[in-house]
Every structure is written in C-alpha cells, then in structure tokens.
Sequence to fold (397 residues):
Amino acid sequence: MTIDELLAHSKKEYIAKIGNTFLVSPMSEEIAESISSRELDKYFQEFPSEMIRCLKNTPNVVEYSSDMRSELLGGFCIKKEEHEFEGQEPKTFEVSGLAPNFFDHINFQVMWPRKNQDVPSWYSGEVAETFHILYDGVIFLAFGDSFVGDRSYAWQFGLEAMNIIKCCFERSTLWKVITTGPIMLHPALYFVFLDPKIDLTFPNSRESHGDLYVFFPYQNDTACEFTVRQFFHSVAYEVKGHYGNQLLREEIMKTELNFRRQFETLCSLHRNVVKPNSWNPVATKKRYSHIGQVRNGIREAYELYVHLMDMQAGITQERTCCRARLAQHQFLRPMANYFDEQLSDVGQTDFSPILQGLRFLEEETRMVSTIRSNLQAALIGALAAAIIYALVSVFLG
Fold:
C-alpha cells in the first residue's frame, strides 16, 4: 500500500521535528578537553533538577516529568561565536564549554497559543497549540497534532518548539542556551497510528518528498505518546552522533579557513623579505626579522595541516560506521542518505597548491638564511683576517 492509501486508515497522527539546543556550561577549552569522566558526572549532577526547576517556573508548561536521571554518556565540547543585537548594533561573543550527553530525557507539555507564535503572514492554515517536547539538554523531539499533507508548516512547528525550549531554559545561570547548524533535521516526521487490522508489518517507516512517515498500530492516545517517547529513545544515539559530527565538521571548516589565512599571511611576509631595499641597517634588520616570522609561520601552517588531516580522518571513519549502522536501523534506514550527504563536503578541498607554496617558501627562507649566514661568515672572516694582519704588523713592525 502507498503512503496515501495507508493514511486513509489513520486513527491518530502527529507531526514532529527533531533539532538541537545545547545547554552549555561555560568553561575554558583546555578544561573542557581534559576533564575526567568522574569529574564530568559530578559537574552535571545538578542539571536535571535545574531543568525541572526551569519548567516549574514557566507558566505555559502544563505538564512535565520529574524523574530524569543524571546518568551520563559523555559530553560535547562546544566553541561557537554567538550573535546578538543591542538595539541596531550586532554584538558577537564566544561561548566555549561543555554540554551534557545524558542517557535519559525530560518530557513536558506546553500550551502555546497562536498569538504567541511567530506565524508567517502568508500562512493561513491551522497551527498546533499544544506541544509535546522530549528533551535531554542537547537534542529535542517536538510533536503535536498533525496536519498531514501541509508540509509548509513542519519547519515553523520546529522553530516554535525551539523558541519554547529557549524560553523555558535560558533563565538558568548554570548554562548558556546554544544551537548549531543545522538547527533541525530537514526531514519532517509524521507518526501515523493505523487500524491494527491493516495488513502491514509494524513498525514501518517510509520516506516521501524528503520526509519520514512512521506507522504504528493504534491502541489509545496514551499508548501513542508512549510510542513516540520510545521512538525518541531509539534514535537519540544516532541523532546526537550526527550533531557531534556536525560540530567536528564546523571545526574542520574553521581550520581550513585558518590554514588558508596562514598561507596568505606567509605570502605577505615573504614579499617583504624579497622586496628590494637600500642597505639601510634598520631596513635590513626588519627584513631579517620577517625571515624568522616566515619560518615560525611555516611550522604553524604545517601543524594546522596535520591537525586538519587528523580531524578529516576521524570524520571519514565515523561516516563509514554511521552508514553501516543506519542501513540496519529500524526507523532511520530511509534517512541514511540524508545523514551521509550532510558530511559529503568534508575532505573535498585540494590543498596541494598550498602545500607546494609552503615548500617553496621553505626553500626560499632556507636560501635567504644560508646567504645571510654565508655573508656573516665572510664578513667575520674578513674582519678576523684584518685584525690578525694588524696585530702581526704591530709585532713585526
């Protein structure tokens, strides 16, 4: 049966979006990368109770679970530039720290009327006003009553869920609320609960127009909500792994940019080294200072390149493992290509021209240094010979 034919037998439908909102505890990058697992557990122990406190103090939250465990799977190192506006002036600041990777999640229900929502003026259709949100401090799954067929609303639904999460949790002093791209998975999710008598193997997931439809047998509304929570638990590992790869991809892109900029700086310094100038002692001293900067800069460029290759090798290996896992996943198998394409641009840049340029600069710097050393040796030799000659002339006078 086609998706349209299956939808005709629907008893209950939910629209859903999956995205990220990191609760980042600020700390230096050095501490974040060196913290032990035991220290990590202790550090994030207060997060679940603080999350529940935030929900208690949010008026629109009408229901929430209060039994989130503090068991950790690890943490995410975050280093991002955030942008805010003070009046008309943009303000940029850097946030670095750790976000917890909890095994468990919190679920809550929010009444969010249309008047609170930033609905586009062109959209005149119905909107969900009751949001069910599953959230673990890193990723969320938001679901509400579905309007299957109106695909234009799905992204807006996800944006409203992100606004709700921000409103609930940004008031805490324990963390900063940060998102990273892509802020949501592009496919919309449709949970469709069918008449159990339908001749279909449950659960059943299918892709259509880039969205994912997941079919379950209908029992009752309470069982439907429980099924969605079980779905979130089963996909959370892969989704968080995807966002971990996206953070690494972002770091790779930054390192590529820094590598190019380092090479451009070296080229500029090299022009100052080879630029003709008079035998002015000050100009000559400045010129030779550029040689030292070029030499140090070449070493830093190679270090950046090695770090870049190491990160690319890591993400390439993880991409291969991810493809293999998703090919066997009960729900995400139809989305395997989507996850893979998000990392397809990593490792595609050809750095051989820059490496050739670095080797040229290395040879040029070595040659200039050799000429300088030979010149200094010749001058010292000539000076020594003159002194010896003078001394011999005096004594033999």
The chain has two domains: 3-218, 251-368. The radius of gyration is 31 Å. The domain at 251-368 is CATH 1.20.58 (Methane Monooxygenase Hydroxylase; Chain G, domain 1). The chain is about 50% helix and 20% strand.
